[in-house]
Amino acid sequence: MKTAVIQFPGSNCDADALHAAGNVIGQDATFVWHTDTQLPDVDVVLVPGGFSYGDHLRSGAIAARSPIMTAIRAFADAGGYVIGICNGFQILTEAGLLPGALTRNGHLHFTCQPVRLRVERTNTPFTSAYTSGQTVTIPVAHGEGNYYADANTLDRLEGEGQVVFRYVDNPNGSLNDIAGIVNDRRNVLGMMPHPERAVEHLLGSADGLGVFQSLLSRVGA
Amino acid sequence: MQYKAKVYVTLKPSILDPQGRTVERALTHLNHQNVEGVRIGKYIELTLEGERADVEAQLRDISVNVLSNPIMEDVRFELEEQAVEQSA
Q1: Does A56 participate in catalysis according to the annotation?
Q2: Cross-chain residue pair B16–A149, CB shorter than 8 Å
Q3: Is the pTM value of this prediction over 0.80?
Q4: Inter-chain contact A101–B22, Cβ cutoff 8 Å?
Q5: Could you report the predicted ipTM of this complex, rounded to two decimals?
Q6: To which H or E segment does residue A83 belong?
């Protein structure tokens, strides 16, 4: 499995993502700079967390319009696997690769804590290593993780089984306790919690490993 | 011709505005009991140069596709001619 980790000015979870997809899983992982216009030959594109462009204008808005995104859109359209984590999720919604938007947390505070998630769907390339209904502990760290979509979009997401992770104790006010969703083709995942920060027991949880193991079992070594 | 644009971005009425709500609560605590419906948005200024029709179309594109997120925000803009000093 070859993974590209995209770097924007302000990305700060890029090294953790590279460590998880590379060292921990034992596969190739490489950084790709946001001004590049082409992706290397990879199976997975990971858009990491952080504060791209300082979250100015809106979280993820400027990154979503940077040169590499055209290549990522083409990669996703061709069926390639794309994961956006935290700011990466915000970028993918801003880019229109995933529906909805992430708005200010309902309580206005930045929240940084381990949270419990329920794995709602295991029939995706990102979650096959989990069992359906399994509860996992993965940290969140965000100020704008409040998932919003209009009623029709929300109905479609629920009806089509695109809600992949749900908060057990909603930390930000997200509609329907949504923590992570996939697109209708199920090859693009966006989630606010950070699986790359929960891949070694030393860090308090290895529950995030499943996301990377699922992809590895899908695309092969 | 040079134009000055003023762009106003506001959260859609259906979107919770926790910032506005917090300010509203603070105003109540400051004894402004008759204030309600506080909503906080963004004001963006820019200067554009070109023919009015072109500039207006460009400003609409910028406002809708970059400066606001139509999923959660409304946007409106004003465009006014800016006097340019003539050089001798």
Answers
A1: no
A2: no
A3: yes
A4: no
A5: 0.85
A6: strand A81-85
